[in-house]
Amino acid sequence: MKIAVLVSGGVDSSVVLARLHEQGHDVTAFYLKIWLEDELTFLGNCPWEEDLSYVRALCEQLSIPLQIVPLQEAYRDRIVKYTIDEVRAGRTPSPDVLCNVRIKFGAFLEAIGDSYEKVASGHYGQVRLGDSGLYELFQSPDAIKDQTYFLSHLRQSQLSRLLLPIGHMTKEEVRAEAQRYQVPSRDRKDSQGICFLGKISFNDFIEHYLGKQPGDIFEEETGDLLGHHNGFWFHTIGQRRGMRLSGGPWYVVRKDPVNNALYVSRQYHAPEKKRNEFVMRDVHFIGKQPEKEVLSMKMRHGPEMVSATLAARGDGKYVVQLAKRDQGLAPGQFAVMYDGDVCLGCGVIDE
Description:
Order of helices and strands: EHEHHEHHEEEHHEHHEEEEEEEEEE
Distance between the termini: 46 Å
Number of helices: 9
Helix content: 25-40%
CATH class of the largest domain: Alpha Beta
Strand content: 25-35%
CATH architecture of the largest domain: 3-Layer(aba) Sandwich
Strand order of the largest sheet: 12-15-14-13-16-17
Structural class: alpha/beta
Number of domains: 3
Shape: globular
CATH topology of the largest domain: Rossmann fold
Number of strands: 17
């Protein structure tokens, strides 16, 4: 096949490129450039230069053509604006989920059109054509590295073009393949940054756009003034560190964007504060809507899944009842639904 391979300079996408080349496919490597010049003024060294050096070395090693695709404007409009708007509104954004649906398999697919049969990436997950004629998304056997949480918003048209050559493998197996192929990034550590930050701190990114604005910290139960902060946007629901308050531990339980205020409590883990139910909006199902009401949910990327019931509310929203408490629930986060190892889709925590 004629395949476009998304490369990042990491070991996963490097193994994908080497495997597809070894299998005899007509492959072209694509590196997506997303940083605008104004971002680079505060980042200092370009965050993509080191990544691109690994990509170029591999493409030269395999004699594979490389194209650098400028998607800066699309990234600013579709991801950065969303992230800043969510933070400014007091919500917790999930840019990685939207990065996949809007950029990697959105703007990029728009850019290449139908000139390539498939687009391959190094994500940990599996795409299969089901008996119903619809594409399904399955988890990776590596529960820790599984990335279906981030792929949960993809549409059928995107899944039909998506190829995940290492999605059935564990990270250990991928590392072994990297050594066999002798890819330049074989000993490189995994990136821990979210899609558009990489090595950059999220707080530095937010400060670049929103700056600092002193505000008050109040105790939720009494309304007493406890201290001050530099902007509510630097804090998340459930956060315990970074507030420099005595008599704690204190947890952020509420944000007031209008008045730039934080509300904290020492009773965050009290038995009566169950935190096991939320309303989900903007629900997206990858295939057909499941008939069963008892599913599994992930509230964040990672191996943990929680049994949950899903009930339609009648206004397009759903009420989710978790089988156990989750102290990190916050409006704006994506909750992802599963039936066994099949990822069913996702929704946004509304309240």
